[in-house]
Sequence to fold (662 residues):
Amino acid sequence: MSLTFKDRVINILGSNGVISCALENYESRPQQLRMAEAICESIESEKHLIVEAGTGVGKSLAYLVPFIIYATENDKKVIVSTNTKTLQQQLYEKDLPFLKQSLNIGLEYALCLGTENYLCIRRLHSEFIYDLFDTDEQRADAKRIIEWSSKTNSGIKSELGFIPKDEVWGKVCRESDLCLGNKCVHKNICFYKNAKKHERSSHILVTNHALFFTNLASGSLVLPEFHAVVFDEGQTLEDVATSYLGHEISNIKIKYLFDSIYNPKTEKGVLLKFKNQKDKVNAVKKYLEESRTASTQFFEEIGKKFGTKNEVKRIRTKNIIFNYLEEPLSSLADSMKKLLEDVKSEEEEALVRAYVKKCISVKASLSFILTLADDNYVYWVEVFEKRGGVKYSLFASPIQIAEQLNKQLFDKIKPIILTSATLSTNNNFDFIRSRLGIKECGELLLGSPFNYKENVLLYLAKKVADPSDDFEKFQKQALSHIKELIDIMQGRTFILFTNYKMLKTIYDELKLNYKGINLLKQGDQPRYDLLGNFKRNMNSILLGTNTFWQGVDVPGKALECVVITKLPFSVPDDPMTEARMELIESRNGNPFLEYQVPQAIMLFKQGFGRLIRTKSDRGIVAVLDPRVTTRTYGKSFLNVLPKCRHTSDINDVKIFFDVKAS
Fold:
């Protein structure tokens, strides 16, 4: 009797399966087997599935094994989408090669990256490439890229060996609008084309949420046709989807566009390619100058209206600023179109059409935002002070994407698996389902196989002021608790904040008192460098905000204490949060309990999850916000955590780490 699909998968992952033979110290995990079973059922019934699986379950193998068999035996394509590069790399560089070898199966897999990640050979070897760069540094970067281009097989930016300046890479990378396709003389050695060819012949396509929703917004022009999806790190899906289905315009982006066409100060830009069309080029320069003047006037008025200090403000009134750019951008696009009359090559034609399209796109987005074109969107301005000036950005994003995702995604592709260590609130998936528009699906809630009762101590600080009643007092008392914890730990600690202002205040205080501690602050270095520094030095304390609450993996003794300063409620006056809450209120709902609390619970679980990453890890999680014990909703936060010991006595922390009380 032949084995069923499910039996074959369980045999592979079970205690005597091929995985156990290939992995040293392999332990069969019941939770992993249950997840794999549920995914098999989902594949066979073509039904969506939400799986919350705690740290250590081995989610990636649990979904990869069933989908590898499904895809290879049925000639199907499966998208595996993550939020972080770390997990993306783990899947592509570790898990998939291991499974291909262990299963001895004809598996093909590909890493799907955005078009701008690939070097364009034609652009790199354009006869006027050096005319585009203003400084010796930029030209030096270009030279290094040219040298690398003859050695690389992939043409992928991340394999370059150094980080080129944005303005350099932006002029040599592949851009969809500038691509000549089969008309390009370099088509046979095109990195992007070869990558796409490999994607079309692959079974498993590893990508990220950003590219997935770029593909959705483009009408499926970016990724090959696929038959199933796994969204790992699914708790981030709503925010990523929202940002990629909206509009953004800034003075920096507009200036970059204008300078790319022609910069009168440096006398660089794409117009240099059309020197033979002198009259038409002069006309473009004229309308370009008018557009620059209009842009300056527009953003000066934005500055008068919204200030020059860091600020985020909703736009609630139509045409709050006169659209000075509309006519000049139209004239600029029209003048550039006339260059098409005398282009000498398909490359020149593609170049002109691309910049015409960019001008029209900026004009359309600006008009959409200023006229508040869609009542289902939220509109806002962000003011950001930076060296050399102020950045003004205008945004429009859909308030709710559930209906859109249901129609464009969940109704069209089946099955879709949504998984993470944090998807449930109050032991159900109602919140995530309502936010994403998932109407019918299977559900599975799996705990972690790790021994939290023995290995984790949850420290709940007492005698701390409620931050919503007296924030200054709370901050002062929180600092006192942080110092006590640092005195015990002497490093090996993450301190997680909900805003940068409090982080900076606490950091400055700690800097005065702890000269021997390696204090690291988010924003001082790139995230990757900060984590590397933290892991190398056991006396490190890292202070981070939202991006360090999730997607950060520091196993072992390098991290043995996580401090959660404040419950991670979204800021009520954040434009997107405010608009979502207004929508719930308009339906007679309770926005705090229906949106802010569930969202905060998911992020709270993510923060807690930074501590235990392997079976042997141990340590403490300290929660300094008193509301987990004083407010009625506080139990909802504590109830989602794995069962572990609780204490409010700092001496228990000392004993836990075998440190004698002084």
